[in-house]
Structure of Spore coat associated protein CotJA:
Amino acid sequence: MNTHQKTYHPYASPFDPCKPLTEKTYSTPPHLYMGFQPPNLPQFTPAEALRAGTLWKDFYDPYFNSFERAKGGPQT
């Protein structure tokens, strides 16, 4: 199963004066999991597409950072 949120564990030096972050996360865009663009994908209206940054609904991802996701996402 493909997920859009990935995690990794960076190296933490024993000599680092700061408390290390043991796990970091990053987001991958939805188009990475589509081998090709199928025909007749649902589209946003032109005004919605400008706000979303893409014309096709299947390629939209809001890209919340980890702090926003912890709070439940932005209030819209």
